[in-house]
Amino acid sequence: MRWARAESGQSSVELVALLPLALVVGLAILSLLAARSTAGQAAAAAHAGAMALIQDADPEQAARAALPAPARSRADVTVRGRRVEVTVRAPAHLPFLDHTLASTVAADAGPEPSP
User: Fold this and answer.
1) Which residues partner with 58 through β-bridges?
2) Share above pLDDT 90 across residues of the chain, in percent, rounded to a whole number
3) What distances in angstroms separate CA 109 from CA 24, 35, 42, 84, 112, one per listed residue?
4) Backbone dihedral region of 110: left (phi > 0), alpha (psi from -120 to 50 degrees) or beta?
5) Does the residue 49 lie in any domain?
6) Domain count, the chain
7) What pLDDT, on a 0 to 100 scale, did the predictor assign at position 87?
8) Which residues touch 43 (CB under 8 Å, ≥6 apart)?
9) Is residue 59 part of a domain?
10) What is the pLDDT of residues 58-74, one digit of tens each?
11) Residue 93 pLDDT class (50, 70, 90 cuts)
12) Please, are residues 32 and 101 in contact by the beta-carbon 8 Å criterion?
């Protein structure tokens, strides 16, 4: 009986010790899922920008319009010739992962149209 009473709080101590680790692992998983989502957002925005180039519209405006509102402030759109490049940073829950989990996608609008 004494042995059972001596270890009665052991599992509680182990649980409290593992809670910070579980929290960090959970936040890392959420950050990776957010990064995966930004890859799709960046691809859609880059393709929208390339389509705007083909239609003689503003590619940067089209790319930003294709992004969800919360992602627009975390996005960088670059237009070089007929190529649109969009980088979207994931909303990282862990600050040191903020710039690590960025997704960059480029879309090409094809050759210059002939006159």
Assistant:
1) none
2) 44
3) 42, 26, 16, 8, 8
4) left
5) yes
6) 1
7) 94
8) 105, 107
9) yes
10) 999 999 999 999 899 98
11) low
12) yes
Handedness of CA 35, 31, 67, 63 (dihedral sign): negative
Helix axes 10-54, 59-66, angle to 10 degrees: 150
Q: Is residue 1 part of a domain?
A: no
Please say if the pLDDT value at position 8 is more than 70.
Answer: no
Indicate if the pLDDT at residue 113 is higher than 90: no
Quick one: tokens of 29? 């998983």
Q: Is the residue at 92 inside a domain?
A: yes
Asked whether residue 6 carries a pLDDT value surpassing 60, the answer given is no
Could you give the CA distance from residue 35 to residue 66 in angstroms, rounded to a whole number? Answer: 17
Range of the domain at 60: 10-108
